[in-house]
Design goal:
The chain has about 150 residues and is mainly alpha-helical. Helices cover about 60% and strands about 5% of the residues. Bound molecules: zinc ion (ZN).
Length: about 150
């Protein structure tokens, strides 16, 4: 019954992400939200592909075209997720000057706008705490692992 449990969870996730207002989110949090939403879509697309395969096998129905369409859809979703992840990486590279609020690169020691020294706390994710969402916790861990 693991498959049904997964499906149930996917439906719950989808409802949650639809209910939550995207407009409340900004910057990295918004991109992360988009990634999550696309991942939910991808899961449900895979579930549809799976059930079409099952019905083709068990009922002898030809779902070749539907499956091909869904696979194209999954490719597009995967592409979107990759683009969002790239955007997220870019956003994380960017940093903000505490003196003037201007954008500075993550490696900069001084602000190119006002010349102030860039002070950084340990853990670059601090800025995201405003948008903290326990559902994004796993992703944060993943990201940290990737950076190591
Ligand atoms: Zn500055």
């Amino acid at each position: 019954m693991a498959f049904l449990d997964d499906l149930q969870k996917t439906v719950t996730d989808a409802a949650y992400y639809t209910a939550k207002k995207t407009s409340e989110l900004t910057g990295a949090a918004r991109v992360k939200f988009n990634i999550k939403a696309e991942e939910v879509r991808l899961k449900s697309t895979f579930a549809k592909i799976g059930s079409l395969f099952y019905s083709a096998e068990r009922e002898g129905l030809d779902h070749t075209e539907e499956i091909a369409t869904l696979i194209t859809q999954a490719d597009k979703i995967n592409g979107d997720i990759a683009a969002y992840k790239e955007k997220l990486a870019e956003l994380r590279k960017a940093n903000t000057c505490s003196a003037c609020g201007g954008k500075v690169s993550k490696s900069a020691s001084f602000c190119p706008n006002c010349g102030a020294k860039i002070v950084r706390e340990e853990g670059e994710e601090k800025a995201d705490d405003n948008d903290y969402d326990p559902l994004f916790e796993d992703e944060e861990d993943e990201d940290e692992d990737e950076e190591k």
